[in-house]
Specification:
The protein is mainly α and about 70 residues long. About 65% of the residues lie in helices and about 0% in strands.
Length: about 70
């Protein structure tokens, strides 16, 4: 399958460098990067599906309501 996308020059240059160093095509570099990114999204979705809002709120109830340290303020 062929797909056209607009990629920032910096990413394209980096993909070319990686492809050259690894002796693979630029297409393979982009396909591999996408596969890794999609896998990360799948893992994140799976972990999020195990979350429980009620448990989360119960934990938050245990946290003290105090002002942050000066170095934590924006």
């Amino acid at each position: 399958m062929s797909v056209s996308v607009n990629v920032p020059d910096e990413l394209c240059d980096e993909a070319r460098s990686i492809a050259e160093a690894e002796r693979v095509s630029v297409d393979e570099v982009f396909a591999s990067a996408l596969a890794c990114h999609f896998a990360a999204w799948r893992r994140l979705r799976e972990r999020a599906s195990r979350g429980d809002r009620h448990k989360f709120l119960a934990v938050l109830e245990k946290v003290e309501d105090i002002e942050p340290e000066e170095y934590d303020r924006l």
